[in-house]
Amino acid sequence: VMAVALLELRNIFKEIRDRELDRVRNNTKQGRRQAASTAAVFADGARVEYFSNGMSLWLSDRVVCRHRDGSYDLRVKKRADAGNLRAAAEFQVGQEVLYCSAQPGKGDPEPAFVISVSQDDIYELSVPGRSKHVPAARLQNLLRPPLSDSVPLEGHQEASLASSSHSESASADALAAVATVATHVTGLLGDLSEGGFATAVSSPETLQGALADALAAAASEGGTGSWDAWGVEEEGDASALGSPPVTTSGA
Question: Of 45, 62, 105, 225, whose CB neighbour count within 10 A is largest?
Answer without folding.
Answer: 225
